[in-house]
Write a structure and sequence with these properties.
By secondary structure, the protein is α/β, with parallel strands linked by helices. Helix content is 33%, strand content 19%. It has eight helices and eight strands; from the N terminus they run H-E-H-E-H-E-H-E-H-E-H-E-H-E-H-E. It has an eight-stranded mixed sheet, sandwiched between helices. Strand 3, helix 4 and strand 4 form a beta-alpha-beta unit. Helix 1 packs across helix 4.
C-alpha cells in the first residue's frame, strides 16, 4: 500500500450554496444502436426521479443491497459487476448519453435485471432523490480530474459531496474512489480526512491496494501502458459524523 505524506487541507467545513456543477453535459454522437437502446430500453431500465425520493425496493422490484456508481462512462465496469453479483442491485448515474446507450445495449445482451440508470447530476441525485442509509456502496472511478487549478472547484469530491455520500450510505457501507491523476488522488484524501464519519480501510493517509472486485477496464489498461498509476481510496462509513 502507498503512503501519502502530510496533507494540508484548506476545504471549508460549511456546505454553503451549491452553485458550481461538477460536470459538463456532453451529448456526443449517438450510434444507431445507442439511439435504438435509449428509445427502446430506457422505459425498462431508466429512472427519471425529478424531485421525488426513490424507494430502492420499488425501483428494482426487490429488496437487495444497492451499489451506486457515479459517472460510469461507457458502463464497462458496471455491466461486469452486475453480471458477477446478481444478488446486488446496481444504480448508475451518468450525463453522457452515448455511454448510457452503450450500457443499455450491454444490459440487454447480458440479460441483466439488477441495473437501473439515471441520466443527470450525481450530486442532485444524492441530495434530492436518495433516502438516508439507502446504499451499501458508492463507486467513483476515474472522475474528471479538472487538472487546471482554476477548475479545481469543479472536482466532484468536495466536503459537501462527501457528506451527502455519508448520509446515503448505511453504517458499514463502502465509498470506493479510484483515479490515475495523482494530484486528484491527494485532493480526494485531503477531503476524506477532513469530513468526519469515514474510516480509511488502508489506515490513515494511506492508499488501498486495488480491491479484487474492481474490474480492470480498457481505460485502465491503456493508462497502464502509458505509465499511469491508479490510486484506490476505500473508506467505510463508521456511524459518526453528520
Amino acid at each position: 500500500m502507498d503512503t501519502v505524506g502530510d496533507i494540508a487541507s484548506s476545504h471549508s467545513a460549511n456546505p454553503g450554496p451549491r452553485t458550481v456543477q461538477s460536470f459538463v453535459r456532453r451529448e456526443g454522437r449517438l450510434t444507431r444502436g445507442q439511439s435504438r437502446a435509449l428509445q427502446d430500453l430506457w422505459p425498462d431500465y431508466g429512472i427519471e426521479p425529478g424531485d421525488n425520493v426513490l424507494n430502492p425496493a420499488a425501483v428494482f422490484g426487490r429488496e437487495a443491497p444497492v451499489t451506486l456508481e457515479i459517472g460510469f462512462g461507457n458502463g464497462e465496469s458496471l455491466a461486469q459487476l452486475a453480471a458477477t453479483h446478481s444478488e446486488r442491485n446496481f444504480l448508475g448515474v451518468e450525463v453522457h448519453r452515448p455511454g448510457l446507450g452503450r450500457l443499455l445495449r450491454r444490459i440487454e445482451a447480458l440479460g441483466l435485471a439488477n441495473v437501473r440508470l439515471v441520466c443527470g447530476d450525481a450530486v442532485e441525485l444524492l441530495e434530492q432523490n436518495l433516502p438516508p442509509a439507502s446504499l451499501n456502496a458508492v463507486l467513483l472511478w476515474y472522475p474528471d480530474p479538472w487538472p487546471k487549478k482554476r477548475h479545481h472547484k469543479r472536482r466532484i469530491v468536495q466536503p459537501r459531496f462527501v457528506r451527502q455520500i455519508h448520509r446515503a450510505l448505511r453504517d458499514g457501507g463502502i465509498f470506493h474512489m479510484a483515479t490515475d491523476w495523482q494530484d486528484y488522488a491527494r485532493h480526494m484524501m485531503a477531503v476524506m480526512e477532513e469530513v468526519p464519519g469515514f474510516a480509511n480501510r488502508a489506515g490513515p493517509r494511506r492508499f488501498s491496494s486495488r480491491p479484487g472486485d474492481r474490474p480492470v477496464t480498457k481505460f485502465e489498461c491503456r493508462g497502464n501502458r502509458l505509465g499511469h498509476v491508479t490510486r484506490d481510496l476505500v473508506y467505510t462509513r463508521d456511524g459518526t459524523g453528520t
